[in-house]
């Protein structure tokens, strides 16, 4: 049996970087400019002994324009509905933002399984952000560095018991 994991969160937190690391091919576009990836992307992921489908959600630019924000919400909701598990990613260096709270609310309403991840936490850079993440009320955050490949075994350990249900 297998399951589908959707990587969700606001633009520029490192969703596509994590997707690429899980899929092992550069299927998703990563760019220094936030908002380059504009669609949902699906790939076959491997993490330790786990095999699953992973969805990378759109990284639309932090929208000032209502329709873009609406589209980001819609795409996130679509990904959540396709997925068995959601990995909600925040930027540990930036800390918890207002947009993060919006995403947390969407996930609380729509997703049965949410795993919180604090990315960009390589070295000691993300320590404050990691602590702040608890305020989202989604449990203990997994400390990640998608770029440097840190925390991947912790992520596997959190996914493992969930994976057994599918
Ligand atoms: P997305 O918009 O959420 O898909 O974010 P991207 O994956 O496109 O990454 C946005 C930026 O954050 C890029 O410049 C990445 O190189 C950078 N980034 C991603 N993961 C990490 C990480 O673990 N540590 C650091 N320092 N930067 C990261
Ligand atoms: Mg992206």
Tell me the layout of helices and strands.
Layout: E1 4-8, H1 15-23, E2 41-47, E3 50-56, H2 66-82, E4 85-91, H3 98-110, E5 114-119, H4 127-132, E6 142-143, H5 152-163
Parallel strand pairs: 1-3, 1-4, 4-5, 5-6
Antiparallel strand pairs: 2-3
Bound molecules: guanosine-5'-diphosphate and magnesium ion.
Magnesium ion binds next to helix 1.
Task: Give a quick rundown of the structure.
Helix content is 34%, strand content 20%.
Structure description:
This protein is an alpha/beta fold. It is 34% helix and 20% strand. The chain has helices at residues 15-23, 66-82, 98-110, 127-132, 152-163, and strands at 4-8, 41-47, 50-56, 85-91, 114-119, 142-143. The chain has a 6-stranded mixed beta sheet, with helices on both faces. α2 (66-82) packs parallel to α3 (98-110). The model has no long low-confidence stretch (mean pLDDT 87). Guanosine-5'-diphosphate is lined by residues 11-17, 30-32, 34, 37, 59, 119-120, 122, 145-148.
